[in-house]
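Retro notes - structure team

What went well: the batch runner handled both jobs without manual restarts.
What didn't: labels got mixed up in the shared folder, which is why I'm recording both outputs here explicitly, each with its sequence directly above its tokens.

Job 1
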Amino acid sequence: MKDPGERLLVATHWANATAVENLLRTWPRLDTSTQALLNASASGHADCVRLLIPHANVPHSKSQALFNAVQNGHVECVKLLLPFSTPKDDCSRALRRASQMRNKLLVEMLYPVSDGPTALMVMKSSRFEVYNPYDWQLIEDRVLAEQQAKRIQEELEKCAPNNTTPSKRKL
């Protein structure tokens, strides 16, 4: 009989979420859980990804899993992995790949969580052709609006007494 780590990899390969759940419940610290997450995200097994996320503790494994899901166009896996990825670096890398693949849905999912100006430059440099010039203007306008909103918020925080924002002050 195979050891639990091998069984986890096999269960993930065949998208057997029940077996994955049982294995993780019995052996919560399997060495192969990170590799299983990478395999599940690359194969688009969203149920397995959902179960494996808390068990993959190797640094950058969730970011690599996000990239694998993007590279293979697995939208559900991307939705699951986005909250666990470092926004600036990892999401911009995934955004670049989605842009190269011309996957408009993934680009639209990754853009808001990527670093705004950097994301725009990444998308432009990869010759993303799904968007027309009008769409580029909308994206640039959104980046500028986000920057302006951030500056206004910082100014409000400076002006507010006792470091409270106006909404927190008592009238």
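Job 2
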Amino acid sequence: MTITSQAPARRLDTHHLRGPPSHQAAVQATLGRADFADSARYHATRGGEDVGGEPERTRQANAFDTGDHRGIATLIPRKAQRIALPARASVSQAAHVAIAEGRAHFLHNVQGLKRPFSPELVHQTRVALRRLRVFVRVFRSRIGKQRAGALRVELRWLFVPLGELRDLQLFVHDLLPASRALTGPERALRVRLAARIESASVALAEALQAPRLSALCAELAALEADLERSGRDRKRARRWLARRLERQRRRALNHFEAVLRRDPLELHSLRKTLKKLRYTADLARGLYDDDSAQRARNYLRSLRALQDVLGALVDAQVAGSIVADAGATPALSRRLIARLERGRASRLRELDACFQRFADADPFWA
């Protein structure tokens, strides 16, 4: 069973990954001298985007599962990778490979989190947690409902401090970028938000040092090993996942009235449903032959377009809440809210068409 990447290998300047000699010594103490050398070669050739084969994933897991999160070299953010499954894969095989890829995605990014926190590492760690929650829910019958429920709670726990920091980072990046000249009130607001970002960073740093995170990593490692030992079963993953995909698709289509009403809470619920559908579809697409590959690409393209619109609407709503709580001057608040409303209105004009394209898209598993 392999996990493949579409990202080409490329060479990078990795000096910023290695750090000063004292930092390298700390990293060596955590990873071990041989694994530290392997890690440096890995980043020089792969750019840290693809965990690739089992040895690299095992090295990352062993380093992080020690519970010593300090002194680990900053990593380049890793995006989710395509999961390769044989056409006749069993449900147990699919569960093992999904959890293995989700765990690799999570470990790679979370072990790179160190202050000042990279916005993209924060984002990718959140994506990895969300993806793992979906996989755990999809395969809860193989994992065990009680174990799956407890694990989903733990995966949600770290998501909260990551989300609080990410919202603030995104607001400053989009509305108060350092790349342009800011007015006096904008600079003052940026200073106040910097204080909030510092507070959120402290909370995240404390979470990253908590024994609860080490326990979560250990449980993910144990789950991956248990699923690997469980071996094959007679149920084919293709048919089994197709039924779940169809249920998720119908659940999403049932939100049509919410789209017409523009209800923010219902649109947020639709967004969460679409994320579950997308992660499950990304997993299942490898089970289909070349004749279905284009259908899968078309379907996922329509799904991502709708997700992007809904994501922008939710981000605008969160940004509006930050403006209200940030203590900006009334004039600046009005300007920022007006800008957010213009962006929201533009996205709302796209919403109906995107939802219609998604509804009309041919489900590749049917």
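One thing worth noting from job 2: The radius of gyration is 22 Å.
We'll revisit the folder naming next retro.
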